[in-house]
Amino acid sequence: MKPKQFAVIGLGRFGSSLALELMELGYEVLGIDRNEEVVEDMSEYLTHTVVADATDEEMLKSLGIRNFDCGIVAIGDDIQMSILSAILLKELGVSTVVAKAISVLHGRALQKLGVDRVIFPERDMGIRVAHQLVTPNLLDYIELSKDYLIVEMTVTDCMDGKTLSELNTRVRYGVTVVALNKRSGIIVAPTAMDVVNAGDVMVVIGSNDNVERFETEVVNLQQK
């Protein structure tokens, strides 16, 4: 099967790190930026790079942009260019269009244009850091929807040596452990008899309120 192809427009800090990670994951990446120096720096790391104005429709057509599985508008300092680029990607038939927004209004405009996914890197990182600061054993935090979360949490001493059946998180807290990352490896969809140890990482999913209650009670137990 041919690997997915991504086009990343804007190779600033966000765009370049995204493009490099996609390459690391084994996908083909076309990097587009107006800055010749930036494009030259990234040329040895990405599948293809080109110096181009992403608002130039003919240029995008010549690059065969419609053949890409996903187009990512990572422009962060020019809202007008970001919006125009997103419009062109949609009009030229790119299957999935993702765009970075630098403000709520910018994000709202992108959504109105039919962008498939709007990303708020600064806002999302701020939310994650805030949760990590108030919950020390919280490693990562992803908002699945306005009502549901998935979090990665370090197993604390109070849970050490217990089975998932003994913890009974679904009944006690209304959350489900969907994976365990142990020293021996990752367990996806662990069974009730799987044992957790201090330092393991558990991936938990549940409603906002239930996950928050689970976080709080685990921290409180750890602190006692």
UniProtKB/TrEMBL annotation:
Protein name (record): Trk system potassium uptake protein TrkA
Domain RCK N-terminal: 3-119
Record Pfam families: TrkA_C, TrkA_N
Taxonomic source organism: Paenibacillus lactis
Domain RCK C-terminal: from-to ranges: 136-220
Gene3D superfamilies, per database record: NAD(P)-binding Rossmann-like Domain (3.40.50.720), Regulator of K+ conductance, C-terminal domain (3.30.70.1450)
Highest taxon listed in the record's lineage: Bacteria
